[in-house]
Each structure stands twice: as structure tokens, then as C-alpha cells.
Amino acid sequence: MAAKRTIVTAVLLASTLVGHALYPVALHGVARRRPEPEVPVPAQWPPVTVLVPAYLEAGVIAAKVDNVRKNGYQGELEVLVVADGDAETAAVAEAAGARVLLLPERRGKSQALNAGIAAAGHEMVVLSDANSELEYDAIGYLVSALLVDGVGAVAGEKLEGEGAELAYWRFESWIKRNEGRLGTTLGLDGGLCAVRRSAWRDIPADISNDDFWTALDLMERGHSVAYEPKALMRESSIGDIGLSWERKTRVLGGGLWVMWRKKHLLSPRAGLVSAELWGHKLWRSTLGPLSHVGLLGLALASARRSRLAQFFLVGHVAAGASLVAQEKGVRIPLPAKLIAQILYLQLVAFGGMRRCLRGDRVLRWDKPAR
């Protein structure tokens, strides 16, 4: 009986760690044998459209247009703002000097992107959110990487939040860097990325995760998605746990729906795409958290006779207490922030699974005006 319990515990522990430990370690072990992709510096910089989808962004859109224009790009630059049924944002963007496409009604970000790509004046299109601030020359770094043969899109580098949240984004960036060395990454972020207009295929109307769908769709059709860590953008953290929970569970639930729509790519026959889907996305979002709950159940059953089980349970209590303290504004040390973040992400996974199973795919979500 004890031997059987040990085996079950080991299997559940391995399953829990697949997405956040085993896959990254295995990925790095393979990727480190590959050279960093070489990115050429063009003799002549091609013209670029910077596409900014915007809804309720009247307070930040002028600063965004200015940020793009001062980014240092050496070629012709068009700033195209797609105002998603938002006349006020459209008026401010036009006054700031952007070309504006005002949609007659709100369609959601994915459909705003479709309209913007169709209206873009150039082959090279940089996508960026209205509230993200580009570091100097981010556009140039993206365009350089996009000029490599076979590349259909390029993911930029996102810096968000501080402490444990920033550590999480740096971990994601490390995974994308390693995936990129193997030839392609799933980690396209709509806050800052670049695509070839000729490689774009319209995002279906039932898809809310525009960046994840775009990456998979390009990879399915033989294009690679590169990663350029020098193309940096900063984005303020949402902060409030209620808004954060809404966004993260919506994104995760929408991501699960994308994987269901593209489930044929989960087959081993899809090669690298399948491995990245399972390791980077699906296991971390489903089987890992479910295995975590299984471990908690075993720990509760063994708590009277096992110090390890007691330690495991106490760790969860500490993580929960740290999460509550953090939300109340209490300053806590970084280790406490890290375990709170881990627990929060596991809870988010269940929230995302629940939303996906309920068919809760919000295409035009409520958002605060900026």
C-alpha cells in the first residue's frame, strides 16, 4: 500500500511540475545546443504600419501615437489606429496625427485587428496595444527579425508589474527565447508583435485570444514565429485582483478554446508545434493544476503520519495568507510573493477551465476607460 501511494505521489508530482519545471528544463537542454538566430540589419528599412486597436483609450492614445513616432524607426512609418466603435478615441488619435479607421460598432479586438490589417498601407505591420509603452527602437528590432526568410511573425518582450509578477514574465520570456532557438515560439503577445500582411489570415469571429490564434495559424501554415528580446514594451499591471482575475481567467479560457479549435495540432504528427502546445500551454493549464489538487488530497490523507505532507499543507496555508495580505496592501517578502503568485496562477487555471467549459468566451469584454 505504501509503495502504491509513493508511486501515485511521484506521478502526480511530475504531472504538476510539467508546465512550470519539466518542460522548461527539457526545452533548455535541447535549445542550448542550437545557436541564437541571426537577425540581419537591412541596407534599406522597409515601410511599416504600426497598428493600434483601441477602445475607451482616449486618455492614452495621443501619448501612444507620440511614443510610436519617437521610437527611432529609420524607414517610412504609418500609425494606424483602429477605433473599435469609439468615436472619442478616434478623434483624439486623429488630432495626434494618426491615420484612423473608425468601426461603426464595437466588434472586439480580434475583428478590429482584421479590419486594421486589411487597411494597412504596408506589408510589415507592427501590432501594439494602446496602453503599452515601446522602448526605443523596438519597431526596428521587430522589423529586422521579420525580414528573415520563413518568418511570418515576431514576438516582442513584455515587462509588466514588479516582484513576483515581473519574475513570472521573465520566466515566460526565457521559455520563448528557448523555443525561438528551436525555430518557432507560441509566445506571441498582442501588446507588441509584428506580422507580415501577406501571411495574415482573418481571425474567426468566435476567437478572443487573437495573438495565440495568430501564432498557431501561422505555424500550421508553415511560417515560423520568431522571438526578439530586444524589442521591449512596458505595460502597467492591472493591480486590482478582481480585474486581474477577470482578465487572466478570460485569457486562459479563451486559450483553451483556441486549442480545442486547433486540436489537430496536439497530435505528435504536428512535431514541434505539438510539443510546445502540450508543454507551454495545455498541460500547465489543465493536467498540472488537476494533479496539484490530487497532491493536496494525498497530503490531507497523510497529514497525521507524514511531516512532508504537513510541510506541503502549511506551505499552501502560507501562500493563501500571503495572497490575502498582498491584496490588502501589506508589504511581504519576495519569497512570500512568489508562493502567493504560484497559488494564484493555479487558481486562475481552474477559473479558466470553468469559463471554457461553460462556453464563456467574452469577445467584447468590459474594460475601464483610460
Topology record:
Layout: H1 2-31, E1 48-54, H2 61-69, E2 77-83, H3 87-95, E3 99-102, H4 109-119, E4 124-128, E5 133-134, H5 138-146, E6 151-160, H6 163-182, E7 192-196, H7 210-220, E8 224-235, H8 241-261, H9 272-285, H10 287-302, H11 307-327, H12 334-357
Pfam family, one: Glycos_transf_2
Protein name: Glycosyltransferase 2-like domain-containing protein
Domain Glycosyltransferase 2-like: 49-189
- N-C termini distance: 59 Å
Radius of gyration: 22 Å
Count of helical regions: 12
How much of the sequence lies in strands comes to 5-15%
- Major sheet size, sense and barrel closure: 8 strands, mixed
User: What string gives the helices and strands in order?
Assistant: HEHEHEHEEHEHEHEHHHHH
What name is given to the CATH topology of the largest domain? Spore Coat Polysaccharide Biosynthesis Protein SpsA, Chain A
Low-confidence stretches: none
Number of domains: 2
SS elements, strand count: 8
The shape is globular
Family: Belongs to the glycosyltransferase 2 family.
Keywords: Glycosyltransferase, Transferase
InterPro entries: Glyco_trans_2-like, Nucleotide-diphossugar_trans
Protein name: Glycosyltransferase 2-like domain-containing protein
Describe the structure.
With 370 residues, this protein is of the alpha/beta class. The protein folds into two domains: 1-33 and 258-370, no CATH class; 48-237, Alpha-Beta Complex (Spore Coat Polysaccharide Biosynthesis Protein SpsA, Chain A), CATH 3.90.550.10. The chain is 53% helix and 14% strand. The chain is built from twelve helices and eight strands. It has an eight-stranded mixed sheet with strand order 3-2-1-4-7-6-8-5, sandwiched between helices. Helix 8 packs across helix 12 (334-357). The model has no long low-confidence stretch (mean pLDDT 91). Belongs to the glycosyltransferase 2 family. Keywords: Glycosyltransferase, Transferase. This is Glycosyltransferase 2-like domain-containing protein. InterPro entries: Glyco_trans_2-like, Nucleotide-diphossugar_trans.
